[in-house]
Write a structure and sequence with these properties.
By secondary structure, this protein is an alpha/beta fold. It has a domain at 8-206 and 267-295: TIM Barrel (Alpha-Beta Barrel), CATH 3.20.20. The chain is 38% helix and 16% strand. Strands 3-4-5-6-7-8-9-10 form an eight-stranded parallel beta barrel, surrounded by five helices. A two-stranded antiparallel ribbon has the order 1-2. Strand 5, helix 3 and strand 6 (113-118) form a beta-alpha-beta unit. Helix 2 (58-66) crosses helix 3.
């Protein structure tokens, strides 16, 4: 496993692949969650990301029970602020954050959270109130580091400047969707994070399974695949998209790799990225991602990939347009 970034100057070093916890409690029960986390730890993965809203708290609970004997070997990241159970309209308020962090600590079975992230920017709460509350949690020792999720580059920059002006602990990470089809993060958040030293945590690197090779041109959607019950993912599987995937599959296989490896290696090529999250339903899927870590794409390969992708504008209206607003 590669360890390519840290949470600030003195923060822990993060594995280049991390576990996405949205799967746990929804597709994976406690036993399956524990098996995945054990296998991940054996592979050198030390980062798991979840949120208080995932499976109505079951994700945090399952993770907590899986790390009882190895808490110090994991960097635990969770989030607050989507569908908040205390006050949905003021998710970044002091009242909400202080209440929700206690629930997360209890479900995770830990007395500290390594990375506590604001799930979405809250336009209805003064930013200073949000940052001051997060700073308080760090001072109290309940939280080690703080991060922003789904912030725009402007919102991230505004938050960093305010933290500096007020002497608050700054955001150490930013979390955004990013993949071969969805690249707007490059000109937005990356431009801010690279200048500030804030590490980028990537989700949806596999485009909700589109970049795993499980959906192929002219073939039926596998019955066990998420697209079999998701109309929004089915809507992504247009002919132009699947034709592009066929080209990417051929490119990867010609190098003894899979398109999953390719998609993750492409994301990890960016120096701003400290980890890319993978959401896996079982241990075999986890093992299927590990080949990405040692693949360093050359400039010639990157140029060939761009030729396969073609004009990205063709995907903007038909692919990923129905993605959920949060993840």
């Amino acid at each position: 496993m590669e360890y390519r970034g840290s949470l600030g100057d003195s923060g822990p070093t993060v594995s280049s692949l991390g576990l996405g916890g949205n799967i746990f409690g929804h597709f994976c029960d406690q036993r399956e969650t524990g098996a995945i986390m054990d296998a991940a730890r054996e592979a050198g993965i030390n980062f798991v990301d979840t949120a208080d809203v995932y499976s109505e708290g079951l994700s945090e609970e399952f993770i907590g029970k899986s790390i009882v004997s190895c808490r110090d070997q994991w960097i635990i990241a969770t989030k607050v602020g989507v569908g908040s159970w205390v006050h949905p309209r003021h998710s970044g308020s002091k009242r909400n954050i202080l209440s929700c962090v206690e629930g997360s600590l209890r479900r995770l079975g830990t007395d500290y959270i390594d990375l506590y992230q604001v799930h979405h920017f809250d336009p209805e709460t003064p930013l200073e109130e949000t940052l001051e509350t997060l700073n308080l949690l760090v001072v109290q020792g309940k939280v080690r580091h703080i991060g922003a999720s789904n912030y725009s580059g402007e919102q991230l920059g505004q938050s960093l400047q305010l933290a500096q002006d007020r002497g608050f602990v700054p955001f150490r990470s930013t979390q955004k969707p990013y993949n071969l089809f969805k690249r707007d993060t490059e000109g937005d958040v990356f431009s801010v994070s690279s200048e500030s030293g804030v590490g980028a945590i990537i989700y949806c690197a596999l485009a909700r399974g589109v970049l795993t090779g499980k959906y192929r041109l002219g073939q039926r959607v596998p019955a066990a695949a998420r697209a079999s019950t998701s109309e929004s993912i089915q809507g992504d599987l247009t002919e132009p998209v699947l034709e592009t995937v066929e080209g990417l599959v051929a490119f990867a296989e010609s190098r003894g790799k899979t398109v999953t490896h390719l998609a993750l290696a492409w994301v990890l090529r960016r120096p701003e990225v400290i980890t890319s999250l993978v959401g896996v339903r079982d241990v075999s899927q986890l093992h299927g991602t590990l080949g990405a870590v040692d693949w360093r794409l050359s400039q010639a390969e990157l140029d060939e990939i761009d030729e396969i992708m073609g004009d990205l504008d063709q995907y903007k209206k038909e692919l990923l347009g129905a993605w959920p607003a949060w993840s």
